[in-house]
Amino acid sequence: IYAVTAVIGTGPLRGHVLHGAANIGIRPTFDPPKELLEPHFFDFAGDLYDAEIEVAFHHYLRGEAKFDSLDALTAQMEADCARARELLG
Q1: Torsion 16-20-46-44 (CA) sign
Q2: What is the distance between the alpha carbons of residues 53 and 84, in angstroms, rounded to a whole number?
Q3: Strand positions, DSSP E, the chain
Q4: pTM reported for the whole predicted model
Q5: If you ran DSSP here, which 8-state letter would residue 62 be given?
Q6: pLDDT, average across residues 63-73
Q7: Of residues 89 and 33, which shows the higher confidence score?
Q8: H helices then E strands: how many in the chain?
């Protein structure tokens, strides 16, 4: 899990900079595991489908982990996002 920034490269939001937290890996809590980059951008609710996005990794937060429940995963994601906001602030 990383603190990240992203620059939107195409579309109506081209050049817009976003801050967030991202998982890169296989999402071990979910079946079947699927390798991907999954960023969560803070305070953003727009549509990024079909947009090219350049993601920069700034701070390593922690390794991937499998959680016993969705509630435990959600709580850890909230903590990860809070830490990423601090580091990117």
Answers
A1: negative
A2: 19
A3: 2-8, 17-25, 36-41, 53-60
A4: 0.89
A5: -
A6: 94
A7: 89
A8: 1, 4
Q: How far apart are CA 15 and CA 2, in angstroms?
A: 22
Q: Check the CA dihedral 23-76-8-10 and report its sign.
A: positive
pLDDT of residue 34: 86
In single-letter form, the type of residue at position 8 comes to I
Q: Which of these, 25, 58, 20, 66, lies nearest to 39 by C-alpha position? A: 20
pLDDT tops 90 at residue 29? no
**Burial zone of 88 (CB within 10 Å; 0-12 exposed, 13-18 middle, 19+ buried):** middle
Residue 27 has pLDDT above 90, yes or no: no
In which residue are the tokens 């939001």 written?
13
